[in-house]
Every structure is written in C-alpha cells, then in structure tokens.
Amino acid sequence: MLTNVILGSNDLERSAAFYDGLLALLGARQVMRNDRSILWKGPDDGVGLAVCRPYDEQPARHGNGSMVGLKAHSIDDVARIHGTALRLGGRCEGPPGERRPGVHAAYFRDPDGNKFGVFHIVAAA
Fold it and tell me: Which residues form the VOC domain (predicted)?
C-alpha cells in the first residue's frame, strides 16, 4: 500500500548523518540523493524513508514537507485514487501525469491538509 514516507528537513547534511547511522541498524542505505532530498530503503526495497527540503521553500515543520506515498497498481489507478480523493473533499496538489519516465503520480491533500502522493512505477520492458 505505501511506497515511502517523506519528512521535512531544514538541514539535509544533519539529517543524512542522523539517518545514515540510525537506518544502517535496520539494513537500510541511501538509494537516491539530490540537492533537495535523500531516500533510504532496506534490503527488501519495500517502503522507503526520505527527508526533503519543503518544496515551498518555507521552513520544515510538522506537516510541511511531509507526505504519505500510496502505491497504485496501474496508471489508471493513479487517476482513480486522485479523483476519488477530490470527490471526498480533498484538494488537488498536482494532477495525474508522468513525473519522469516510467513514474506516474498525482498529489492531493485530505480535508485536514495532510499531503498524499499516489504513484505507479511502470516496469521496465
């Protein structure tokens, strides 16, 4: 059901040092890093944990820069889940579409403002 958990960070280097040490105890390692975010996954490549600088460039705080990632089973599911969220009172944070080659996503907030992304990764041929 989940693809990842993202937490806001005001200092990626400090976060990297903390999570590298902590998550190594669980067999996880960095699998992606750029100037805005870092992602760790364990040996099973299951649910990952990421830290990021908030997209809106405001300071990270509870809920700002945080998002729950949901795993869709198809590209159509991405749109279906996003549409259902909006019909149930959610707010669009990014319509369904391909975000990078092979990665389809949509973003929304629930009625309380909690941010979600729904993702489908197309298997390589």
Answer: 1-121
